[in-house]
Specification:
alpha/beta, D-Maltodextrin-Binding Protein, domain 2, Cobalt-precorrin-4 Transmethylase, domain 1, 5-stranded mixed β-sheet, 26 helices, 34 strands, flat, uroporphyrinogen-III synthase activity, methyltransferase, S-adenosyl-L-methionine, Hydroxymethylbilane synthase, transferase
């Protein structure tokens, strides 16, 4: 019997182990071991990743077997590609050795991996090992290392690395470590003392098949021999781990790690995988063993596939968006929104929250509000599963709290059944926040020591109400009915009929916590009529109890210039948030919907511009220009001190503040934030031997550069960024526009995007521009402007809003 193997000492030792097992079963069979040099052995200058999963250490052996030159090939199972050549199979696996990894170092101070912090140089050619060692030790430097075990130890002894990572099974089979060795210690090799630490599998997962010796044969050949040396428990581990590798589409060099544990009762597969090659996710799946060999083998394959599926699938966040005020979503909810690839949102969620998502995120409107569901609940659940299964991070954005009459529980159960990873992020509920904004505490000493939350909109398929109004009528606490506006008359009648005092104070709070909030109060017997006369519209809640009367004294929502007004903010993110904050302070509700995004231009040679001889002015016309300029300086590693001889001019207080955030201060800022004023100021302050360098948007107006060149100045115009229209917002823009009191424009590019997205849509909102350049763009786009800020900055814009909206009110 001819057995083929690689020529390395470890490969020979492992082949001798297989040969010895065969001799034990078949003493009369002569055995010949033939060594082969594989491509992976020959090309030590190539990284393991460069070979992909194409059998760098197996192809030559497999060719020899197919040509009949050898009968068997012995491999380290982790070197086997997931797909074997036609006609070949793994006939047997020997009992698994130690599957752990070992940290090996030359110096005692590096003998334990946890002590290795900072710039420790680690040698490994495995992405799996590199990612996991970085998780254990921040700041380590990874360098590629190739070669067999003695070669790697020699490189370590030459102090090319502070430590390397090797397989425990290999070290034990070569005799460097004993099977009963301690978890830490030292060993002698190549005339050198090395320190080692066996890494626990809880922290450092092995490669698929690590520690397993696999014997490859021709199909239907040597079957009796293979059966005699085969270990069934190891085979089931091998099947699970190979199924995992195959399911993720990877090979032995993949950024994947897997550990399988088998006992009499169950099998557990723990796996890690970095789909992006950088960030490892971890899962664990288990199954109860049948005690039947074939069934247990199939379960092993299924577990491996399940592990891969769970790691490749994305995650769903069930997020409570809060009651309407965008400030009432949790910080954790915002973080999840920023991470999401897909956002599935309800009508009750504020449109401003979608501005927190990344530009590439997909938005899906589930459109759930009273009487109008764009998607059925079952369709929403299936959508969440499909998007997560495709590997996406999904944000399910629901008004209020997802687990309070939000059907979040149903979605969580559907995700559980599908094996999808998910997280629930509770939200501020309208149950207590809407009354609070109306000055009604739902508990109060002496008036209500409890509150009861009831849906006023039960499942329409129910034949009878599941609510016991007799019990509700007897309750001394506050009653809060959600989604019950259409049944207000019935609810009041049923409570009174079951003993509730008809004179009990009651309130209806509509659109709670938003600029459109309205509150009417009365007695239980009359609240339905009062609400109807006031034309209260959903969403609304009914509050019943003595606490309602407290709203006459608790009036914390003081009238401010923009109270009750909803204002659309179309500016880019860097401007939108400061503007939104100013609107909030004036009592308004900003609806932030940036219609354009900014993208950095590819700039080359900024360093040459800044260090060449001569005096120069740096001119910034926007915050984005400042930000991209300094980010480019970082990319090119330009020392901030190189700006020492430069003078700086800015347009607008916001641009000046952004400059100051980067540690620089403007030498010149015109009173008016417009190109004409900036050109005039520069002409009055710049000498003709000084260069003027403009850093601004690609689409910027040519007014500034034209005026400067007319006066004979040498001007260098460097586009730092360009804008792109965010077309995915067009449908939502048209929808929210109907409910706006004003629309703000801070740039010509935002005006053009708005005009193209609304396509001539008529709306009642007032249009307010930050300055004449923006207004001119609006005029060209056939958008009528109601007000231009007198001062061309955010302060001037908010003053213009107050003027036009307050004047319109009066």
């Amino acid at each position: 019997m001819k057995i083929g193997t690689r020529k390395s000492r470890l490969a020979m030792v492992q082949t001798e182990m297989a040969a010895e097992a065969i001799k034990t079963a078949f003493p009369s069979v002569p055995i010949e071991i033939n060594g082969y040099e594989t491509k992976g052995d020959q090309q030590l200058n190539r990284s393991l990743a460069a070979f992909g999963s194409k059998g760098a250490f197996t192809k030559e052996l497999e060719t020899a077997m197919l040509e009949g030159r050898i009968d068997l090939a012995v491999h380290s199972a982790k070197d086997l590609p997931v797909e074997l050549p036609e006609g070949l199979t793994v006939g047997a696996v020997l009992q698994r050795g130690d599957s752990r990894d070992v940290w090996v170092s030359l110096r005692k101070e590096f003998s334990e991996i946890e002590a290795c912090r900072g710039k420790v140089i680690v040698g490994t050619g495995s992405l799996r090992r590199a990612l996991q060692i970085r998780q254990m030790c921040n700041g380590v430097e990874i360098r590629d290392i190739r070669g067999n075990v003695p070669t790697r130890l020699k490189k370590l002894s030459e102090e090319l690395f502070d430590g390397i990572i090797l397989a425990a099974a290999g070290l034990k089979r070569l005799g460097y470590l004993s099977d009963a060795c301690d978890e830490t210690g030292c060993f002698e090799a190549e005339g050198q003392t090395f320190f080692y630490e066996i890494l626990p599998k809880e922290q450092f997962f092995p490669a698929a098949g690590q520690g397993i010796i696999a014997v490859e044969t021709r199909q239907h050949d040597c079957e009796d021999c293979m059966q005699a040396i085969h270990d069934e428990q190891t085979w089931q581990m091998f099947l699970a781990e190979r199924a995992f590798l195959k399911a993720i589409g990877g090979g032995c060099n993949e950024a994947a790690a897997v550990d399988t544990a088998v006992d009499e009762e169950k099998m557990t597969v723990r796996a890690r995988y970095a789909a992006d090659g950088a960030h490892m996710k971890e899962i664990s799946v288990s199954g109860t063993r049948y005690g039947d060999r074939m069934k247990d083998r199939q379960m092993a394959v299924d577990l491996g596939c399940r592990a891969a599926q769970k790691l490749q699938s994305g995650k769903v966040y069930l997020i409570g968006a809060g009651p309407g005020d965008t400030g009432l979503i949790t910080m954790k909810g915002i973080e999840a929104l920023k991470e999401a690839d897909v956002v599935v949102y309800d009508h009750l969620a504020s449109a401003s929250l979608l501005n927190e998502t990344k530009d590439a995120a997909e938005w899906i409107d589930a459109g759930k509000f009273a009487g109008n569901h764009r998607m059925k609940q079952s369709e929403i659940e299936q959508l969440l599963i499909e998007k997560a299964m495709a590997g996406h991070v999904v944000a399910r954005l629901k008004g209020g709290d997802p687990f309070i009459f939000g059907r979040g529980g149903e979605e969580a159960l559907a995700l559980t059944a599908a094996g999808i990873d998910y997280e629930v992020i509770p939200g501020v509920s309208s149950v207590y926040s809407a009354p609070a904004y109306a000055g009604i505490p739902i508990t109060h000493r002496g008036k209500a020591s409890s509150f009861h939350v009831i849906t006023g909109h039960e499942d329409p398929t129910k034949e009878n109400s599941s609510l016991d109004y007799e019990i509700l009528a007897r309750e001394e606490g506050t009653l809060v009915f959600l989604m019950g506006l259409s049944r207000l008359h019935q609810i009041s009648e049923w409570l009174i009929a079951n003993g509730k005092d008809a004179h009990t104070p009651a309130a209806v709070v509509a659109s709670g916590t938003t600029a459109r909030q309205r509150c009417v109060t009365g007695e239980l017997s009359s609240i339905a009529v009062i609400s109807k006369k006031a034309d209260i519209q959903p969403p609304a809640i009914l509050v019943v109890g003595d606490v309602v009367n407290l709203n006459k004294e608790i009036d914390w929502q003081q009238a401010r210039p923009l109270s009750g007004k909803k204002i659309l903010v179309t500016a880019t993110e860097i401007i939108a948030e400061p503007l939104a904050e100013k609107i909030r302070k004036l009592g308004g509700e900003p609806v932030v919907m940036s219609l354009i995004s900014v993208r950095a231009e590819k700039i080359y040679g900024l360093k040459e511009v800044l260090v060449r001889p001569g005096k120069r002015w740096l001119v910034f016309t926007s915050r984005n220009g400042v930000r991209f300029f300094f980010e480019q300086m970082k990319k090119e590693e330009i020392d901030i001190r190189s700006l020492g001889i430069c003078r700086i001019a800015v347009m607008g207080a916001g641009t000046r503040r952004e400059l100051e955030n980067w540690g620089c201060y403007a030498d010149l800022m015109p009173e008016q934030s417009c190109s004409e004023s900036l050109a005039k100021a520069l002409c009055e302050n710049v000498q003709y031997d000084e260069e003027i360098c403009l850093f601004r948007a690609e689409e910027a107006s040519d007014v500034l550069i034209k005026r400067l060149r007319e006066k004979g100045f040498f001007v260098v115009d460097t586009p730092m960024y360009h804008t792109e229209k965010m077309w995915k917002k067009a449908a939502l823009l048209k929808e929210v526009l109907e409910d706006m009191d004003a629309v703000t424009f801070c740039s010509a590019s935002a005006v053009r995007a708005f005009a193209q997205m609304t396509e001539g849509q008529r709306f009642a909102a007032k249009n307010v521009c930050i300055g004449p350049v923006t207004a001119e763009a609006a005029e060209k786009a056939d958008i009528s402007i109601d007000k231009i800020a007198g001062q061309y900055d955010l302060e001037g814009l908010t003053a213009a809003l107050c003027d036009i909206l307050c004047r319109n009110e009066s």
